[in-house]
Amino acid sequence: MNKFLTAGIASLGLLALNAPSAAAQTAYAPAEMQQGVDDRDELEARIDNGLKNFGYIAGLSRGCVAEDQQVAFERDVLEINASIARLLGVDRAFLFSSAFGYGTSVEIERENCAEVLSQYETRSAKYRSAVEGA
């Protein structure tokens, strides 16, 4: 079915139920409610950016891990990705994993590995503590 036709049918359903549309609710909402929407959008963007940065750092870290430890490291990253999918949805898990993939394609200089691995450890510990506290 055509997406425009589907949207039209959904709109007719809302009109039949006499339910205001999301656009109407936002347009006529008090300023305090609109501020809440803006805050929520900002929070969502911060979460998305944080997951992208975390995935990128994880990808960079993979290039710094010794070859005999790569399987354990990749298992750790897969567990984090699965946790993100369970708790935050597959869209956000995709953000993390695609940033991880990009990070693995970047050549990192060995002298920067200590800092990158430290950032990964800090971020993964912070994520795990947030998950356990949820």
Report on the architecture of this protein.
This protein has 134 residues and is an all-alpha fold. It has one domain (31-133). Helices cover 80% and strands 0% of the residues. It is built from six helices and no strands. The longest helix is centred in the middle third of the chain and has 32 residues, at 31-62. The model is unreliable at 1-29 (pLDDT under 50).
Short account of what is shown:
The protein is mostly helical.
Please supply descriptive tags for the structure shown above.
6 helices; mainly alpha
Subunit organisation of the chains: single chain
Please report the total strand number as a whole number: 0
| Arithmetic mean pLDDT | 81
> Between the first and last Cα atoms, what is the distance in angstroms?
40 Å
Fraction of helical residues: over 70%
Structural class: mainly alpha
Please write the string of helix (H) and strand (E) elements. HHHHHH
* Low-confidence runs of at least 5 consecutive residues: 1-29
Q: Tell the overall outline.
A: globular
Q: How many structural domains are formed by the residues?
A: 1
Strand content: under 5%
* Count, helices: 6
Largest sheet, described in full? none
Radius of gyration: 21 Å
